[in-house]
Amino acid sequence: xxxxxxxxxxxxxxxxxxxxxxxxxxxxxxxxxxxxxxxxxxxxxxxxxxxxxxxxxxxxxxxxxxxxxxxxxxxxxxxxxxxxxxxxxxxxxxxxxxxxxxxxxxxxxxxxxxxxxxxxxxxxxxxxxxxxxxxxxxxxxxxxxxxxxxxxxxxxxxxxxxxxxxxxxxxxxxxxxxxxxxxxxxxxxxxxxxxxxxxxxxxxxxxxxxxxxxxxxxxxxxxxxxxxxxxxxxxxxxxxxxxxxxxxxxxxxxxxxxxxxxxxxxxxxxxxxxxxxxxxxxxxxxxxxxxxxxxxxxxxxxxxxxxxxxxxxxxxxxxxxxxxxxxxxxxxxxxxxxxxxxxxxxxxxxxxxxxxxxxxxxxxxxxxxxxxxxxxxxxxxxxxxxxxxxxxxxxxxxxxxxxxxxxxxxxxxxxxxxxxxxxxxxxxxxxxxxxxxxxxxxxxxxxxxxxxxxxxxxxxxxxxxxxxxxxxx
Length: 473
Hints:
- The protein is an all-alpha fold.
- It contains 17 helices and no strands.
- It starts with 13 loop residues before the first helix and ends in a 5-residue tail after the last helix.
């Protein structure tokens, strides 16, 4: 990590030059480090769940029940971060550095305000929320939910600021910086987890698992703040002196950020409904299978998430520069490589599903879940190439400032799952047909979304061609 000293106010960094250059190279430059960072985070989550599973079934189910709450927290910060990234990259592409700087400052102020409000609300109402989410769960599971969830919501400001800063780094093409801090956080969490959880250390159980994550995220946040405010070797500058809200910037952030946050919230709400369906169909075992396998799927789809994350700044910068040819080139390239990668992942998952779920079933108390987890994983693997289409399409909409189109896509892709799975629950016995309902909904919805994305992109390019066509042509 050999970086130069402070960067001059009007000097472009190498990362910015890459962002504005060849779109295919820019996608790879953004996707590869983002993928590596997400791998570190996902492995961290997997090991975290493996340590937690040593506490028994109640603890493992509690992680799944708390997940929707945590997802809402991350969803708000991701929404602000994606909205800011789109607005910042667009201004960088348009050679408007001062506007990009002010947009970055707006993002930090907005996430601080949001985190204060949300912390107060969630700390006050966490227990009743968890009891609703865990309706039908045993009291011992609810207690573990509270032990795990309270530190998360009390320190949610750390998670939210870290998420926004990571998006701002990617917005200026500094995906490697984001990678370094996220890997650092993962390593710290892995080191702290067993010491905080078990009796040979602090013995805090589920509270220890949460606190290890909070400390790791805090260190990652401090590293990013150091680069921006002390070392000052990045392109953007945060302008807080004489700060005032600008309606144009807020609108630019929110028109992508609010739909993006709602997208994450929708996914969380769908998880809540799925948990209720699974509690009815399979009890705590159904929730444990579903939540644990989604942790595995989150690892398997990391290359896809890395590519989708790269689409936003690359396409937004090209859009700001009015280089719609680059927008299309970046999008098509991202679609091709993401679908091919997910086809390979699908085949590997079908073959090695039993081995992939072992980390969650090594304990005698959870070993009996292994067969059910492997079954769900093999069925779910079939939708991965289609999920690639849907996710990359949604990122392209966000890059172009079309937050509502991205939201509609997410609504369609996720809400279709609930009725199909509910019908499967009441019409059949067992969990197998519920897994098929989830798979069919993703395949159908994502295929429709990607067709819609090309229709929208074609109309944008045609509209630009009409505006720039000479009058005597």
